[in-house]
Structure to design on (1140 residues):
């Protein structure tokens, strides 16, 4: 068996290593276009920022270590330029000329390359991407060489990691994002928390705006003293010594498509075992298209974890097909550290659920990371999308300083295993005061969602505030002190402990209108809603309370007021 | 509806609160024998140790706060002495005399009380338990009043938390445990890591030994200057100003058993909705007996999390039976912090699997808590028991400084949802370098276990070392430097990168015997095993490597040697 693997990072190297463990006698050649294999691509921003000190730390494996331990023939700076599937050969550009290599099985793991948007100046030397060890080394040298200002184009995961790294080095950093908010896959009420943290770090965010040109400044001619100016559609001019381009990736598949491997929007189409449309050719990783586990939509998933795990399964499919397991549909779990926060997501978001036409409801909560009475507890801001018909968990997102990764991992497992909100209530999670609560945030998310699914309560969502404010009677059940810090315009203040004795007053205030209740986090308003529903009122409470509302709407276009700023209330 | 709940902590108060949320008009009385309701029972050790500063922090709710928010009639210092199930009344000892209260529904959540072993002196005033706020306040006062030495009887969860707390206050602390090792539900190779940490904290452990008496010393008469001496079966005499008794709990059910409520070894028997044998009476929490989710064995589960969650379900069963979900069988997830470590477990352990007659295999691994190239990565020592027939996950345990709670929570979810080892490989967990690895420890556990289940490799367990050493050829595939720090007697050293070129030498060394391979963690020996199996040898590798072997066996009765201490090897 002669196996050729194209691409020596993540999925490709995972496949090659597994292949050797399955077949001691196979000839296994790994062809990597770049200078390094099996490097820590997810570590590059931290190398730029200085948390990872040595370049050597990024090189998890080398061709030598892979030959020694796994007897792999790893060839760097080898670029596959063409495949002849009928002859079962690949044509390779090597440092010493061209070569033709024969294969019995070919695994394609070419990955993706950075998208270069058609902006004037995008090819200027001041513009870099952060995809390779070479990129990271050059960027670090540039930073240590005195760069003072950076502009990051794209506020996705890598863009924000790069922005944080550059800021840690003391640069002034602007981040530009075309979408409405940073980390576009995150919901708005989560992304705003990340934006606040970026602000705290001293990073300036420009969202909802396009970069229209990158003007290279020739020395001090323009007077900025910086190498370039990034011009935005709103007229802003951002001086920059460095521009980091991170607006997305696109599958790097041209020679394979040319060889007849079926692709869909540039990504290689594979079956559940990674087989392509051509016999003897498999593919894995960022260059392939997958079927989303929740929505069933087809999409590429450019994540290291799924690629690494799938690489192993593809090797199984090639070398022992009878025992090979199908590759799992991706759930799309992801996490990023920003300053003191983690922001994480799993499963579908509103946009993908709407694209797939799946009816959903969203619940929000802000539980403590561990028992509130134990020192160091911090709020986790958590949302969960559930299917309205049965409470199936469709997606979840969380932002917080502690315990976010744990809850998202449990919820990712719950989504993979098709749990419902009610099932979450029953999970036996590890509890001691330093780690969680007797009702863990995940249990609570299940309880809150199940109350919605089974009709115990009705919730309203923050984005309906304008409609609610114009048509409903709004009841604030927080304390007078909380009310005084800002409340929904015209909301009646009745602290939740006074609901029972002031029912008549509330009924009169409602005057036949539906009652829409809120508190700070959603817990007291839930208790109030149960009392008011028992009194026969049409009542719903705000999912996630004012905490979520502020995160989603900011000042809500004047619908949030502080008492001094409004006419005295009757 | 007149609902009486007996017991105002965890399960009881959870039931009462949910009952109110379901029925605004019910009369709900909570009778609590103690002074406090809804207090932070899991926080008591941390209050003693000083991490929780104020007594008020332990009082999560008070009768007043519960009346205000939930209109509950909470009566502390009310002890239910008898139940007349036919008349549907309870007899109560109140601070002001006796009372008789009628109910429509009765929920029993009396909890468990500390076991007092029949040791002479156990009733001395120097002996305390740590079950109530009063216990904790008294213990803290004693500590702050100058106590210098403490003996903790019982090295379970609460015993160790108490020992750590007392040690944090500067006391000399001895812990006495009758079982072979601390934290008896933990496997030996995990418990030894906890014991090492206790030693690092300066806590002395006496395991596998009984306390036979607690001799009260009258002042300085005995010359120790301490209030008592704890005498052990091995003759040790441990001076003590304080003795904390924490050798287990027993359901506190006498009046209910006397009323005819069916019990099993003292614990109340309930159906899946918490109903007891008597109509109109339900029960929940530490006083009840459950069916274990993995083994099907019946056992009480004295854990706060399941009690809190079950309380809510019992209220559903009482107040809206048509919608009530069955209570989940407990998975038995638990965690404890000891010094810088967390020790956690979920599902079944060897003892319960053997009691249930379930055939299992165990895999061990020592992955990093997050990407090794990112600063701060620390080893997680993880084991997983799987069913031999199909890889069903039966139990898991982990000890480490970081990320233990997360992995155990994911595995607890996997056990609840009946995942197999192979399923674990597919979990999409949140990966960025500060949080995990592209192949998360949970994914790795699945890969390692699946290799065992499908026969890709065979493992041997550390406890078979004596048998292996006498009948097999043992191969050490670590580096010469590692070998020199200690190795299995007569093991041949062949670093894993030299296996291929030294196959003949290894075959000659085996001389027809089975080859048993090991390395430090189990990864290199796995690679070696695959090469040797391909060469036709009978080969198995050590689960978890030397790291697990040392943790399980210590010096293995002389089977582990360092080169200087052994005859020169041929």
């Amino acid at each position: 068996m002669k196996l050729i693997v194209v691409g020596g990072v993540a999925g490709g190297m995972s496949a090659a290593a597994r292949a050797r463990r399955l077949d001691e006698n196979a000839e296994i050649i790994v062809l990597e276009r770049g200078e390094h294999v099996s490097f820590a691509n997810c570590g590059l921003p931290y190398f730029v920022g200085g948390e990872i000190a040595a370049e050597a730390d990024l090189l998890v494996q080398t061709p030598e270590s892979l030959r020694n331990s796994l007897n792999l023939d790893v060839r760097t700076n080898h670029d596959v330029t063409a495949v002849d599937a009928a002859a079962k050969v690949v044509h390779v550009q090597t440092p010493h000329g061209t070569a033709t290599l024969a294969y019995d099985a070919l695994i394609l793991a070419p990955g993706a390359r950075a998208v270069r948007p058609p902006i004037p100046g995008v090819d200027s030397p001041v513009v870099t991407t952060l995809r390779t060890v070479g990129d990271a080394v050059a960027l670090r040298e540039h930073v240590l060489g005195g760069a003072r200002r950076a502009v990051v184009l794209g506020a996705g995961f890598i863009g924000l990691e790069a922005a944080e790294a550059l800021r840690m080095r003391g640069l002034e950093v602007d981040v530009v994002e075309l979408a409405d908010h940073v980390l576009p896959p995150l919901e708005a009420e989560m992304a705003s928390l990340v934006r606040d943290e970026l602000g705290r770090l001293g990073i300036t965010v420009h969202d909802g705006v396009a970069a229209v040109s990158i003007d290279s400044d020739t020395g001090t001619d323009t007077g900025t003293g910086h190498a370039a100016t990034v011009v935005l559609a709103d007229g802003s001019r951002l001086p920059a010594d460095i521009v980091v381009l991170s607006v997305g990736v696109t599958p790097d598949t041209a020679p394979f498509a040319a060889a007849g491997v079926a692709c869909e929007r540039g990504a290689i189409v594979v079956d559940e075992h990674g087989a392509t449309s051509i016999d003897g050719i498999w593919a894995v990783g960022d260059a392939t298209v997958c079927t989303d586990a929740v929505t069933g939509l087809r999409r590429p998933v450019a994540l290291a974890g799924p690629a690494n795990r799938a690489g192993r399964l593809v090797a199984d499919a090639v070398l022992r097909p009878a025992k090979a397991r199908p590759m799992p549909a991706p759930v799309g779990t992801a996490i990023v550290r920003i300053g003191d926060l983690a922001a994480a997501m799993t499963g579908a978001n509103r946009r993908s659920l709407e694209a797939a036409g799946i009816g959903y409801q969203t619940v929000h909560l802000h539980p403590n990371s561990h028992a509130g009475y134990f020192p160091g507890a911090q709020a986790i801001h958590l949302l969960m999308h559930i299917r309205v018909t049965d409470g199936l968990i469709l997606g979840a997102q969380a932002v917080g300083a502690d315990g976010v990764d744990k809850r998202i991992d449990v919820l990712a497992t719950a989504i993979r295993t098709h749990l419902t909100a009610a099932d979450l209530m029953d999970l036996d999670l590890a509890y001691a005061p330093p780690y969680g609560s007797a009702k863990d945030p995940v249990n609570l998310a299940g309880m809150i969602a199940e109350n919605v699914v089974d009709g115990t309560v009705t919730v309203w969502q923050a984005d309906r505030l304008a409609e609610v404010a114009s048509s409903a009677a709004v009841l604030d059940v927080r304390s007078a002190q909380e009310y005084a810090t800002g409340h929904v315009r015209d909301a009646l203040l009745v602290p939740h402990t006074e609901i029972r004795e002031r029912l008549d007053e509330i009924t009169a205030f409602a005057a036949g209108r539906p009652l829409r209740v809120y508190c700070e986090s959603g817990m007291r308003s839930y208790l109030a809603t149960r009392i008011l529903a028992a009194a026969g009122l049409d009542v719903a409470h705000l999912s996630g309370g004012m905490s979520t509302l502020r995160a989603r709407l900011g000042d809500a276009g004047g619908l949030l007021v502080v008492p001094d700023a409004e006419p005295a209330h009757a």
Summary: The mean pLDDT of chain B is 95. The radius of gyration of chain B is 27 Å. Residues 96 and 124 of chain B are 29 Å apart (CA to CA).
